[in-house]
What does this fold into?
Amino acid sequence: MSIEYPLNEIYGRNDRVLPELMPLAGTQMPQPYRGLLVHQRDMTPTLCSFHKSQIRIEALKSWQNENMYYREVLLRSKESNRALLYGGIKINLSLLPAEAARKVLEEKEPLGGILADCEVEHSSEPSGYFEIKAGSFIDEKLAVAKGSILYGRRNTLYSPERKPIAEIVEILPLETAVNKDYDVIIMGGGPSGSSAARILAEEGYKTLVIEKETFPRYRVGESLIPYCYYPLKRLGMIEKMQSSHFQSKQSVQFVTQDGKLSAPFYFMKHMNHEAANTWQVNRSQFDIMMRDNAVEVGAEFLEGTTVKKLIRSEDGKPEAVKVSSDNGESTFSARMFLDCTGKDTMTMSKNKWRITDKKLKKMAIWTYYKGAKRDEGIDEGATTVAYVEEKGWFWYIPLHDDMVSVGVVAEKDYLFNDGRDLKKIFDREVEKNVWIKDHLSTGEVVVDHKVTSEFSYRSKYCAEDNLLLVGDAFAFLDPVFSSGVFLALYSGVLAGESVVEAFRKDDLRAHSFEDYSKSFRNGLEAMRALVYAFYDQDFSFGKFIKKYPHLHSDLTDCLIGNVYRDLEELFRAMRDFADIPAPLEHGLPKPSREEAQLS
Ligand SMILES: Cc1cc2nc3c(=O)[nH]c(=O)nc-3n(C[C@H](O)[C@H](O)[C@H](O)COP(=O)(O)OP(=O)(O)OC[C@H]3O[C@@H](n4cnc5c(N)ncnc54)[C@H](O)[C@@H]3O)c2cc1C
It folds into this structure.
């Protein structure tokens, strides 16, 4: 029996030309089609379980020739109405019990469902698989892009006496049309995801970013530090930033509770370089610029689409993602996956890899003011860190358009010691810092107060075979030194470069990402030491510099993000004042199964 049968008869009867079906070994078929087609089961239950949906049929054409019943058909999801399969079927009604034959002729239920309901014993025996470049008729019926490559199978259902109950050609839809095979799928389109996407797409790798939200979307994390310059430069973003409307930021300053201002750390005094001029960004706009920068070199960006699940092969390696959007569910396959899902920490949460930093268990409440005071001249865009009780602190970040981002960070017990009303708590704390109170006095709140408590964690592993964790999806540090976007950009670039290297060596196993882990963790450790010092009751920048004036420059290096260098002397000296922790040992790549077996 030819692989086209009975679809060729159906097409012939309707004077259409059947596109060529190109035979394919089952093992050559990409996922998820292999899983959906290469098996000895009926299609109806397979589709029901894959799409988590009941199925109904839409008979496009049907006719009967004595006991032979022919039908051209679409299987649709009962929930979403999406077409899940296009097919041609010839059924020998004489081999079915009367009840089953009657139901077939009613054209309401798919054959697989009828056979199951009527307990008709049969076997399902595919005799071939194929790919087909969908012609205009199938394109239209399956609602896929013209010329899409689709996959299908030729199947026969046999009675226990090995008589053919049904001959079927089955072709799957949208998954195939949109699911081109990618080299890399990046889950999450924040700064880390877009950075990695730019690097990979620029190197010619077929890259898809899947982002659950539709841009513009809100994100906190507006204050950049000078060393963002270097990843931004690598990404071709500097000119775009320089011609943007974002508020320029040239310093950071610290304010005591009674309003005393420390001498600001002016970045240009420390580095005679254009990097000294950085920015306070509106993240919804910055993240769009980062997205467009990746799309410019060929990365594809799919918004409004949530990655629901990483699909693994039999040996446990990730090979596809299941996603969901307003258009229903679909699947995309790739060779390599980057988890850039930020604080959603997809992989970390699923695998229970989150290890929280118990000493940095803070929370933040924040909002936005319009018309609040800002300093003048080069101080206009300064980030201010203003202390409240018990080493709590405010951030005060002047943005463009006369907006200020302002938030308070402290221990949960301290913030919530008198009720849970966010505005009340925030206003109570404003009263405790003279400088903050004065600066906000001319402004008005324009956004409801927000809260987060997911502070300071790191994943047990940073990679496994074919999967790498990047940005906040790997680690997050208390935001006091505005290191988050820098670390997201830095690790995004590093991840992109590491994956390019791994592709070149044709080795995407976890151990290929050891250098990535080491480098990312080194930067995190430097920032973490600084954060620990900041919260230590015995530490103050003033006291420290007084005792160790020659380390002023190293300290400023930390504040600007120059943390990828030897800072051991600085941290040794800091131990005179503060409890500086030893580096965390976790965050390495997870040994592959093969490697684990060898060791
Ligand atoms: C209170 C607070 C203040 C901060 N202040 C600063 C600051 O001043 N300066 C600074 O540099 N950093 C700051 N940060 C940190 C900064 O916000 C983050 O470090 C930074 O956004 C990390 O970038 P990312 O790309 O890793 O993750 P994100 O920017 O969070 O991007 C992750 C993306 O993944 C998407 N996503 C999640 N799950 C899925 C899924 N299943 N499928 C598809 N898409 C998904 C999300 O929608 C999101 O767009 C602050 C953080 C907090 C909590």
